[in-house]
Design a protein that fits this description.
The chain has 26 helices and 19 strands. The chain is of the alpha/beta class. Helix 7 (240-249) packs across helix 8 (253-277) and helix 24 (584-605) packs across helix 26.
């Protein structure tokens, strides 16, 4: 099947994308639909392939491209640089494993295999949400009254194999899709009949979600419950399509009643979403069930139930409800997501600009361009001398090339290149597999580390971090305990804090840890470092440190044994994997936290308030020295000056 359609973002043919058509896909458990977007909003060459006909997802993509992506001359393949895929599956990180089909793939590996600059993969309901602002009026049918508020929040409910719930929130001229699992809220009956249906479901399920009844499979469940209520414990086994067919033909009273219940219950769900999100922009109904009901849905109990909201009945009555009738709304959504990712409209990434302009470069600049196109990640990390050597050009040629591309110099060029290259790769954990190339291993290790660092950043507790820095700044002595790779972190921490003028030690032997912990005082701090958080060899030292009255700070997983014994915990949540014996990433995360603490303490100790404290301390000691006739104040002042100088040096280095 091949067809085309346009959205309200369509433009004249002169505005076709300069970097070629964009590949769009809508992947379900049974079918994989593909299309090309040749200009903003202009989607055509739609084809549906059976998932079962292909062993891998990439094979289906390659089959579509081979059959449909040709140049205007018709005898040479065009190049697809950017693609976006909506998939009926949760999307978390790089690895995709479909729940209703056997396909499993890595987004980044697939991107490289298909030679794409960009490959975005999003949940299909997220794509449907993002399609709403771009649909034509003829692709939506209003049911009931109400008028949408321009710029208002939009709600989305989709009944199909499951029950999808989502929303769109306007902000600064763009829309943000609200991810939700609202279909799994507890089912709320709207009348006695629905309460009886709920009671029937409770015989089998301890928890009955809205999705259990307001969905395609839910229609079958409702049919069986109603038959049971009417005294027929063993009704004719009917599938959803058969129930709907008989209901619309009015040939089976139980089927008619089932469809009435479905529409009423959907009205309750839609109203709940409306009042929860404040969807003054309207509620849209998608999914595979409602559009197949045709004119029946408009006269069904749906809208009456939607407005039956008690004290908020007037509120929901003002909110319009629409049925999405667009043939392929997911394509519209992923096209919008891809356009925003690439900067909107005809924004062309740097690599594509280089590819297009390469014939116009001088021979020397073409060498630089070829190197960058072949090894963009390597160029981002190499100095100008190495780039020039590998391209076989002079260093001024490299600078001239960067300026030709509109950049101020090599540093500016690398920033723009990194933005373009990194933007195509989800910064998330991806497993290293046997058989990966050296480059694949390198990219995955770096991406995994970046992902974990960002997670630590996002999960930092501001209050805990502030308290820990205060405690370390005021500590008379700090001791760092760790084993193995964590022992290396402890030694690194000891060096950093000793340079700040703080008495500190690092111990990696359990006996020495226990002996030293026994000498700690209430003014001291013990920093216990562990990537697992299991006490084991650390237990004796931790217990002794606790009994000594010292403050215990843990750098470990938040729910670990160590965290439960510590006074404060800075969490490092990273699972290296059961097949890994070298804590690579967690070691980097622990070192990162040590750097955060060291800089924070350095800032604290060099603050104006800290300087006032030092001056006051000097004044008191000077007074004591004048009475005692010794030079204690001179010694302390020298020590304080040295610590302040080291702190200033650390801060200057971090800037």
């Amino acid at each position: 099947m091949s067809s085309s359609f346009s959205t309200n973002a369509s433009v004249a043919s002169a505005d076709y994308y300069l970097d070629g058509p964009r590949l769009l896909a809508d992947i379900g458990g049974t079918n994989a639909r593909f299309a090309l977007e040749r200009a903003p909003g202009q989607i055509d060459t739609i084809q549906t392939l059976r998932c079962a006909d292909f062993a891998e997802f990439a094979l289906a993509v390659e089959a579509y491209i081979a059959a449909n992506v040709t140049s205007s001359a018709g005898n040479q393949q065009s190049t697809i640089r950017h693609a976006a895929i909506a998939i009926a599956n949760p999307v978390h990180g790089d690895e995709i494993k479909m729940t209703n089909h056997h396909w499993a793939f890595s987004i980044e590996t697939t991107r490289r295999r298909l030679q794409l600059d960009t490959l975005l993969v999003v949940n299909d309901f997220t794509a449907l949400s993002m399609a709403l602002p771009h649909l034509e009026h003829e692709h939506c049918v209003q049911v009931g009254g109400g008028k949408s508020l321009a710029g208002g929040v939009i709600g989305l409910v989709g009944a199909g194999t499951g029950l999808g719930v989502g929303g769109l929130i306007p902000t600064e001229g763009r829309w943000i899709a609200l991810g939700s699992e609202g279909g799994h809220v507890s089912f709320a009956p709207g009348d006695a009949r629905e309460a009886a249906i709920l009671a029937y479901c409770w015989r089998t399920f301890p928890h009955v979600s809205a999705e259990r009844l307001v969905s395609g499979p839910g229609i079958e469940m409702t049919y069986r419950a109603l038959a049971d209520m009417h005294g027929n414990a063993n009704p004719e086994p009917l599938h959803t399509a058969q129930i709907v067919e008989r209901a619309l033909a009015e040939t089976d009273p139980i089927c008619v009643e089932t469809l009435e219940c479905f529409c009423s219950m959907l009205g309750t769900v839609a109203a709940d979403v409306a009042v929860t999100l404040g969807t003054l922009g309207g509620i849209y109904i998608g999914g595979g069930v409602v559009p197949r009901l045709g004119e029946y849905f408009a006269s069904s109990p749906f809208r009456t139930r939607f407005e039956s909201k008690g004290r908020f009945g007037e509120y929901t009555a003002k909110i319009p409800t629409y049925i999405i009738t667009a043939p392929y709304p997911a394509f519209v959504g992923v096209a919008a997501i891809l356009a925003e990712h690439l900067g909107g409209g005809n924004a062309t990434p740097l690599l594509e600009r280089i590819r297009k302009a390469r014939p116009q470069f001088s021979p020397a600049e073409q060498k630089v361009a070829s190197l960058i196109l072949a090894h963009p990640r390597a160029v981002m990390s190499e100095p100008i001398s190495e780039i020039a050597r590998r391209a076989d050009v002079s260093q001024p040629t490299v600078i001239r090339f960067c300026r030709t591309m509109g950049c101020q110099g090599l540093a500016d060029f690398k920033l723009k290149l990194a933005s373009g290259v990194s933007g195509t790769v989800p910064v998330a954990h991806s497993q290293v597999h046997v058989g990966d190339s050296s480059l694949d291993v390198g990219v995955k290790v770096v991406d995994n580390t970046i992902s974990a660092m960002l997670e630590v950043r996002d999960n930092l507790n501001a209050d805990t971090l502030s308290k820990v820095i205060d405690i370390l700044s005021q500590a008379a002595r700090i001791e760092f305990y760790g084993f193995g790779s964590c022992g290396l972190v402890a030694e690194d921490a000891q060096q950093k804090f000793f340079r700040l003028g703080i008495a500190s030690s690092a111990y990696t032997d359990p006996q020495l840890q226990e002996i030293s912990a026994a000498m700690l005082k209430s003014t001291d701090v013990a920093v216990i470092i562990s990537n697992s958080g299991r006490l084991r060899h650390l237990a004796p030292a931790v217990e002794v440190a606790v009994n000594s009255g010292a403050t215990i700070i843990a750098l470990a997983p938040s729910n670990s044994q160590l965290a439960k014994r510590a006074d404060f915990t800075l969490a490092v949540e990273h699972d290296e994997g059961s097949n890994m014996h070298i804590p690579m990433v967690s070691r980097i995360l622990l070192l990162l936290l040590i750097d955060v603490l060291a800089v924070g303490v350095a800032m604290k100790r060099s603050s104006p308030f800290a300087e006032m404290q030092r001056q006051a301390k000097r004044g008191i000691l000077a007074h004591v020295a004048a009475i005692a006739g010794d030079t204690a104040s001179d010694k302390v002042a020298a020590k304080e000056d040295a610590a302040g100088a080291v702190s200033s040096n650390v801060i200057s280095h971090t800037k």
